[in-house]
Amino acid sequence: ATPTAVMVATGVGANNGVLIKGGDALERAQMVKYVIFDKTGTLTQGKATVTTVKVFTGMERGEFLTLVASAEVTSNFSMIILLSESYFLSTASSEHPLGKAILQYARHFHFFDESSTTNGTLNDAKELSSGWLHDVSDFSALPGRGVQCFIDGKRILVGNRKLLSENGIDISTEVENFVVELEESAKTGILVAYDDVLTGVLGVADPLKREASVVIDGLHKMGVIPVMVTGDNWRTARAVAKELGIQDVRAEVMPAGKADVVRSFQKDGSVVAMVGDGINDSPALAAADVGMAIGAGTDIAIEAADYVLMRYNLEDVITAIDLSRKTFSRIR
Ligand code: ADP
Ligand code: MG
């Protein structure tokens, strides 16, 4: 391709909200064999909502939700600090989608005011004056696992099985069966231990992006193999992948492990694209031959990527590969 063709393609991309950082990036995209997608916020909308709350002890439902929300509010801050210390120096103020969903649900439970308008709304004034959240101490966010903190000297753990088992919390068959049922319907089960006793479980659903299936089909037709990588558990990951027709899934991957997944696909010389949105995905975006940050994303993800897909639409993954193929018009 001539320099002019590259310039034209870059312009066409920009008009479609596909920002390409240079001619090399444009050229590499035509050779992509695998496209590795992050699950949460990339294939899914990243708008998790709590669909199920089950308390397994005598604790009152409202008190259970207050405890969990208190732990998650703190996590939204500490997660950022932890990430910035271990990977980058970041001032990004993103919240963990699961924490956000839980906080929102608890607020709704306590402060939803049906009489205020026709549809009802959250009563902010009532919330602000109530000081309903507990004071939390010694909190830590454990990426890929969940959060831990203390409320009135009692430990509270909110997260996945790994978090609870690493802390010696017993998961009964009844609880395990309940979590398995959630996971088989593509939901994430969040387990809560209070004072070292398994107290309850929340089910969280994060809907797929509307265009996700079409894009996966499209990639298959182009001879490109889609892969999904996630920190979420295997059962949920498989259920989501099945809905989309993705055969190759890597689940329970710790944040730093996503880049290793990228490298494992590069081993035989294959050209690998990674599509992600979060801070967690930045090392993988940097490791990929073609890193694609989707949406406004975080600054760090955008920095690490070769492509920025501004429209928050997965169809632009196909647009980007097409544009490269047409520009370099390889005979295949
Ligand atoms: P992803 O790769 O999908 O963005 P993460 O690595 O952020 O996932 O998290 C992986 C898993 O760790 C989650 O599915 C959840 O089970 C648990 N987890 C992480 N952070 C939290 C949190 N703040 N509250 C509850 N669970 C969490
Ligand atoms: Mg993510």
Write the layout of secondary structure elements.
Elements: H1 3-15, E1 18-20, H2 23-29, E2 32-38, H3 39-43, E3 49-55, H4 61-86, H5 97-111, E4 112-113, E5 121-122, H6 124-130, E6 137-142, E7 146-151, E8 154-159, H7 161-166, H8 173-184, E9 188-194, E10 197-205, H9 212-221, E11 225-229, H10 234-244, E12 248-250, H11 257-266, E13 271-276, H12 282-287, E14 290-294, H13 299-304, E15 307-309, H14 315-328
Parallel strand pairs: 2-11, 2-13, 11-12, 13-14, 14-15
Antiparallel strand pairs: 1-15, 3-10, 4-5, 6-7, 7-8, 8-9, 9-10
Helix pairs in contact: 1-14, 2-14, 4-5, 8-10
The structure holds adenosine-5'-diphosphate (ADP) and magnesium ion.
Structure notes:
The structure is a single chain. With 332 residues, this protein is of the alpha/beta class. The chain has 2 domains: 3-45 and 208-328, Rossmann fold (3-Layer(aba) Sandwich); 49-205, Calcium-transporting ATPase, cytoplasmic domain N, CATH 3.40.1110. The protein is 45% helix and 23% strand. The chain has 14 helices and 15 strands. Strands 1-15-14-13-2-11-12 form a 7-stranded mixed β-sheet, sandwiched between helices. The longest helix has 26 residues, at 61-86. The protein is elongated, with a radius of gyration of 22 Å. The model is unreliable at 78-94 (pLDDT under 50). Adenosine-5'-diphosphate binds next to α3, α4, α5, β7 and β8.
Fraction of residues in helix: 40-55%
CATH topology of the largest domain: Rossmann fold
Class computed from helices, strands and strand pairing = alpha/beta
Report the average pLDDT across residues.
89
**How far apart are the first and last residues' alpha carbons, in Å?**
16 Å
How many domains, in number, for the residues? 2
Number of strands: 15
Q: Within the largest sheet, what's the order of strands?
A: 1-15-14-13-2-11-12
Which parts are unreliable, with pLDDT below 50 for 5 consecutive residues or more?
78-94
Protein name: HMA domain-containing protein
Organism: Arachis hypogaea (Peanut)
Family: Belongs to the cation transport ATPase (P-type) (TC 3.A.3) family. Type IB subfamily.
Subcellular location: Membrane
